[in-house]
Design brief:
Helices cover 22% and strands 34% of the residues. It has a single domain, classed as Dihydrofolate Reductase, subunit A. The chain is an alpha/beta fold and 160 residues long.
């Protein structure tokens, strides 16, 4: 496997990531960071998330993971991580940003080498949560503190 998988996610203080199909907060500065990060990059996104938020990946090259036989002319669609990895290896794609939803984050945790984690000042209602990721050993590479969110750049320790 040549490709490096990097998760990009904004989490509330209790790992909240969604409420009624949207983020439970509105932080334009954090969203702008997300858009800059994925611009002109390959992104791995689940079908449900892509159907709800396809406009969020404009300017990126979406790879949609779907078990349902989904097709979309604006994305490459696969039904398994093995297919995604084979595609990335064939095209020599150096990195793919994993952008959710929760099922995709959970599925890709073992494949991740890095995690760009925005922790926002939010503790409130949610119906979707980021999966448990702390059972892996992460090293903090960088931390940027903003007014109502903090960006952490984690790298998975090589022995995991």
């Amino acid at each position: 496997m040549i490709v490096k998988f990097i998760a990009v996610a904004a989490l509330g203080k209790n790992k909240e990531i969604g409420l009624n199909g949207a983020l439970p907060w509105n932080i334009p500065e954090e969203y702008d960071h997300f858009k800059r990060t994925i611009k002109d990059q390959y992104v791995l996104i689940g079908r449900k998330n892509y159907e709800l938020h396809g406009e969020d990946v404009e300017g990126a090259m979406p790879i949609v993971l779907s078990k349902s036989g989904y097709t979309n002319p604006n994305a490459v669609v696969f039904s398994s991580m093995d297919q995604v990895i084979e595609y990335a290896d064939d095209l020599e794609i150096p990195k793919i940003y994993v952008i959710g939803g929760a099922e995709i984050y959970n599925l890709t945790l073992p494949y991740l080498s890095e995690f760009l984690c925005s922790v926002v000042d939010y503790e409130g209602p949610a119906d979707t949560y980021f999966p448990e990721y702390l059972f892996y050993e992460w090293e903090v590479v960088n931390q940027e503190i903003h007014s109502n969110w903090t960006l952490y750049h984690f790298k998975k320790r090589p022995d995991f």
